[in-house]
Amino acid sequence: MKAAVITFPGSNCDRDLRVAFERAGAEVVKLWHKDEALPDGTDLVAVPGGFSYGDYLRCGAIAAQSPVAHAIRAHAARGGYVLGICNGFQVLTELGLLPGALMRNAGLTFLCRPAKLEVATADSIFTAGYATGQTLSVPVAHHDGNYQIDPDGLRRLQDEDRVAFTYAPAINGSVSDIAGVLSGNRRVLGMMPHPERAVDPDHGGTDGQAMFASLAGALIGA
Ligand SMILES: NC(=O)CC[C@H](N)C(=O)O
């Protein structure tokens, strides 16, 4: 399995994401925001957390106009896998690969702490290593994690079983406590919590590990 991890100016979780994939047995290639094409054989594009382009305009808005953005869109259009974590989730909504938007946290403060999550569906390559309803502890670190979507869009996400994770209890004002969502073909996942910060006992927990193990396991040889 080959994962391409993208770095924008201001990304700060690209190394952690690379290590999480490598420990799970994936081959990782690094991409810079100015790269216009993915390496041949890329199975999954990973968009890391951080403050791409300083979070100017809106979190993720400038990254969605960067040279590498076209390559991400083309990969998704081909049915490729895409994982966006935190700022990466914001970038994927700005790219139009996932519905909804990430607004300022309801409490107007930056939240940096472990969060309790519930796995809302195990029916995806990203969440297959968990059980639906399982509770996880995964760190969050964001000021714009308040997921919002119009009522029709919310109904569609729920009807199509595309809510991947919810906060339990609520932390940032997200509609229906949504922490992560899947695309219609279930091959794109965006989530605000950081599973790559929970893959080693020294992180204080390993609840993120199953996501990388599931991805690497399913895509090895792919
Ligand atoms: N850790 C992150 O990716 C943070 C995302 C974004 N900069 C925010 O604060 O909401």
TrEMBL record:
GTP-binding in keyword set: no
Catalysed reactions listed for this entry: N(2)-formyl-N(1)-(5-phospho-beta-D-ribosyl)glycinamide + L-glutamine + ATP + H2O = 2-formamido-N(1)-(5-O-phospho-beta-D-ribosyl)acetamidine + L-glutamate + ADP + phosphate + H(+); L-glutamine + H2O = L-glutamate + NH4(+)
InterPro entries noted in UniProt: Class_I_gatase-like (IPR029062), PRibForGlyAmidine_synth_PurQ (IPR010075)
Subunit structure: Part of the FGAM synthase complex composed of 1 PurL, 1 PurQ and 2 PurS subunits.
Pfam families: GATase_5
GO cellular component, one term: cytoplasm
Gene it is expressed from: purQ
Cytoplasm recorded as keyword: yes
Source organism of this protein record: Paracoccus isoporae
Pathway: Purine metabolism; IMP biosynthesis via de novo pathway; 5-amino-1-(5-phospho-D-ribosyl)imidazole from N(2)-formyl-N(1)-(5-phospho-D-ribosyl)glycinamide: step 1/2
Keyword terms: ATP-binding, Cytoplasm, Glutamine amidotransferase, Hydrolase, Ligase, Nucleotide-binding, Purine biosynthesis
UniProt-recorded Gene Ontology molecular function terms: ATP binding; glutaminase activity; phosphoribosylformylglycinamidine synthase activity
Enzyme active site: C86, H194, E196
UniProt xrefs under SMART domains: GATase_5
Major subcellular location class: cytoplasm
Protein's name according to its UniProt entry: Phosphoribosylformylglycinamidine synthase subunit PurQ
Top-level lineage group: Bacteria
Function: Part of the phosphoribosylformylglycinamidine synthase complex involved in the purines biosynthetic pathway. Catalyzes the ATP-dependent conversion of formylglycinamide ribonucleotide (FGAR) and glutamine to yield formylglycinamidine ribonucleotide (FGAM) and glutamate. The FGAM synthase complex is composed of three subunits. PurQ produces an ammonia molecule by converting glutamine to glutamate. PurL transfers the ammonia molecule to FGAR to form FGAM in an ATP-dependent manner.
Subcellular location: Cytoplasm
Any GO BP: 'de novo' IMP biosynthetic process
UniProt xrefs under PROSITE patterns: GATASE_TYPE_1
EC number assigned by the record: 6.3.5.3, 3.5.1.2
